[in-house]
Amino acid sequence: MLNTIEKSQLMIGFIPLTDSAPLIIAQEEGFFADEGLEVTLSREVSWSNIRDKLMFGALDAAHMLAPMLLASSQGVGSVKKPLVTAYSFGLNGNAISVSNQIYAELEKLEPQLIMQPQATAVAMKKLVEQRKQQGDAPLRLAVVFPFSMHHYLLRFWLNSAGIDVDNDIQILVVPPPSVVQALEEDLIDGYCVGEPWNSHALEKGVGVPLISGYDIWNNAPEKVLGVRSQWAEANPQTHAALIRALYRASEWISQPQNRDEVIEYLTAPEYIGAPKNSIMNAFAGKLMSPDGTQVREVKRFTLPFRYQANFPWQSHAVWIVEQMQACGQLNEEMDAQAIAEQSYLTDFYRDTVQALGVKLPDSNYKVEGQHAEPWSMDGIDLAEDMFYCGASDS
């Protein structure tokens, strides 16, 4: 195996988020080395930086927003260069947080809000209308990138209450590590971001995680391992070695006895650099009010491995493309399934991971939004996948 890889020295970019953990663990626990790979991990400052470095060859692979990979492959928001993925970094991990001031205003409209995720969008609608009547400026909500699950989950949540996202709310872009500072400096009123930056706002006393991404779409996709299509074609054995290493790292992360060690690795300044308490809560998945009187545990706040969390479902890609079309980012006449199949190398993932003796689904697609409880397909256990308020994807 070690003699067949085409390229052993790799530069891989990541953004300091807890779902970059498989890269960090694969490096620190020797899973890359086991595959004959000499990896340098490059901590990047923004998603646009990751995208551009990957597209122009400064990076061999990258921890990427799944929608950004799909958009770049279609030449939306950047030059057009085909990017592909054959690995998901896991499911969930996002939340929507608001400043303490906005949270206090929402609590006046809907008490015990932390305990009622189904009431959060309605409370936000009431606040939006109240601010209109008072002549106040629209709420400023940040996402990490225009082509991101954060953007689409935020829109989905707001739209569920009848909020006109394009006119009632101002959506801004702020890189993940900067959202807490932006909230503290009153540059934004809230944001949708991945962990640990929701927990960190609570830890610093400047913001409140209001609703988790899991509450908006149970077990939604998030980041993927992105590579250039041309690179994947030229380096299939290297690509497979990367996937094997990350799969083993994700499995290692999922084991409870390794949790403390994972957290220690992630707190290092060259990786995430957030305080231990913030990163601990990113795994514990607790949402709470500023005074700690309301505490709600989200059972799968982040899901790094179980329930096929690393499987690159083409049905996930189809949903993402459809959201891009719905908000005017992508031509509605484009074939979402064709785009998904071009960009998501699900068969490659299956061939690679099945060689490790792992049983995987036979299909590249699954029905999204119709399972309120864990279910099975092809004899494989899968997680629940309902949308906010139980709405199905129809």
TrEMBL record:
<protein>
    <submittedName>
        <fullName>ABC transporter substrate-binding protein</fullName>
    </submittedName>
</protein>
<keyword id="KW-0472">Membrane</keyword>
<keyword id="KW-0813">Transport</keyword>
<dbReference type="InterPro" id="IPR044527">
    <property type="entry name" value="NrtA/CpmA_ABC-bd_dom"/>
</dbReference>
<keyword id="KW-0997">Cell inner membrane</keyword>
<keyword id="KW-1003">Cell membrane</keyword>
<dbReference type="Pfam" id="PF13379">
    <property type="entry name" value="NMT1_2"/>
</dbReference>
